[in-house]
Design goal:
alpha+beta, elongated, single chain, 255 residues, 60s Ribosomal Protein L30, Chain: A, two-stranded antiparallel ribbon
């Protein structure tokens, strides 16, 4: 009797171990299915959902309301291009006075033209000054010569934004960038899908903000000419997919 009871207890222990192992695998499988469903949602649906949410809180000026969920508030992503921008050619043609406020640097896959606030705006304002028109016209014409994507990024010093008449430095830097974008699109006829604009406020200084001179360096616009892209990314944007794979209502492009 004692031996039989012991065998029963050992068998029961093995069964419990199997059940726990199977349960663990089922939980992990459910978790990965959930992650997959979140990660591969249709981009359009995600944009519409974000638009509805942002509109309901009224975070954007002239933004969406909950009744206008059919519109997208996400900025259009500029196309990827393997074309190079000969930005040095542009810099050479600028006037000496403008060159004092402009700087060019190269990074992997892009060239960045940094222009000080003085050459474009009135101090701590997002309104363009009249002297900026010549420069912006040359930049717009230069952009129209190519097909590469362009990003415009605004930056400010760390002075209190309310003293400048704005709710935040994020707002001021974004308005600065949008003003440049607006000029390129409206006056220079640059295609809207090629140009993206946004601001970083005072979050990415290039100087200490301890002196008026260093603050001036931080008040700037960066124009990024993204002139190179990985071969696989260029292929994805320039060639049609070889097929479509559908899994649980989600479409995957196959290249």
């Amino acid at each position: 009797m004692g031996k039989r009871k012991k065998n029963n207890e050992e068998g029961s222990g093995k069964d419990v171990g199997i059940v726990m192992t199977v349960s663990l695998f089922l939980i992990l499988l459910t978790f990965f299915i959930l992650l997959n469903s979140i990660a591969v949602q249709d981009d359009k649906k995600v944009r519409l959902a974000i638009g509805s949410l942002v509109g309901s809180f009224g975070n954007l000026k002239g933004g969406l309301s909950p009744m206008k969920t059919g519109s997208s508030i996400m900025p259009a992503s500029p196309p990827i291009s393997a074309q190079e921008a000969d930005i040095e050619k542009l810099i050479t043609g600028l006037e000496e006075e403008i060159n004092k406020h402009a700087d060019l640097k190269k990074e992997k896959g892009m060239e960045i033209l940094t222009i000080g606030e003085k050459a474009l705006f009135h101090q701590n304002r997002h309104a363009l000054n009249p002297g900026s028109i010549t420069l912006l016209k040359k930049l717009g014409d230069f952009i129209n010569e190519g097909e590469y994507p362009v990003e415009i990024v605004g930056h400010t010093d760390n002075l209190d934004a309310e003293e400048k008449g704005y709710s935040s430095n994020w707002e001021l830097s974004s308005l600065m960038a949008v003003q440049i974008q607006k000029y390129f699109i409206e006056k220079c006829k640059v295609r809207p899908e090629r140009v993206t604009a946004y601001g970083y406020g005072s979050q990415r200084p290039v100087a200490s903000n301890d002196t008026p001179e260093s603050m001036e360096k931080n008040r700037r616009i960066e124009i990024m000419f993204k002139n190179k892209s990985p071969v696989y990314a260029t292929k994805m944007y320039t060639e049609p997919p070889s097929g479509i794979f559908t899994y649980k209502r989600f479409n995957f492009k196959v290249y």
